User: What shape does this take?
Amino acid sequence: MENEMSTANKSSAVSDWTADQLPSLEGKTYIITGGNSGIGFEAARMLAGAGGDVVIACRNAEKGSAAQHALQAQAKGKVDLVQLDLSDLASVRSAAEIVATRYTKIDGLINNAGIMQTPELKSVDGYELQFATNHLGHFLWSGLLKPNVEAAQGRFVVVASLVHKMGKINFNDLMMRETYAPMKAYSQSKLANVMFGLELQRRLSDAGSASFVTMGHPGWSATNLQSTGPTGLMSKTYKWMNKLFAQSAEKGALPTVLAAAGVEAVPNGYYGPTKRMESVGPVGVVRIASHALNPQVARRLWDESEWLTDFKWAFY
Assistant: This one.
């Protein structure tokens, strides 16, 4: 199992990839959650700069509008905005309906938005907030927009994290009501992202779909994730550690852009920084944790996610 998945990823040999290697994206459409700031904004800027039409899906309409205007000012393609709160499943359904109507073909559905190491909070649906936002919202969003991605033979893009390697899916307490810890919850949600991507690729392949899944992570990049999620001492620690160790959001966005539109990206390809334990540096192929490759756990997570979101994916 591990050798099979590792071989698939290694076959996508990429070294020191940059956005200059993008082809013309004229006529292609990319939807990116959290495109108003950080990694998402930089990825949207690069994709629109290469001629792609980009839709940024954002929770805050005011910030989203400001980002849309900033992006459009330097874009070759069009930049659109949709309001989306991934932690609210009703909002996910409403936003997906709008996107599906406006864009019948989606070349890249980029699951980028996320929150990190928040205090113990619940979503409006009663789920642990990090799991709800980072995993369940994207799981439903992707399922609802699957027909539009397949109409373009497009890509499902999963933005993961280095910390997926620390994660564990705790089926006995998915919402961590018994033993909540901010980092534990975050790493579980990011492991869920990776396992979702791998399981989606299995199901697309089994169904003979021309669409496929690519993944990437930004390493340690300075974004508002470190300032809006963690509290207290951890927030202060990130502030000075970012100055010492983090790379820019622009560099952190490169793996996402490669996964979304690079001709080098292949099914199950996983891309990220290749220096300092994958935290910074030139973009290439990076490693998926061995425990993320377990198909039995991935299938169970998929079933649990369908039940929690009250949504059944359709494969033909």
About this structure: Residues 1-8 have pLDDT under 50 and may be disordered. The first strand starts at residue 29 and ends at 33. The radius of gyration is 18 Å. The beta strands are 29-33, 53-58, 79-83, 108-111, 155-159, 212-216, 270-275, 280-285.
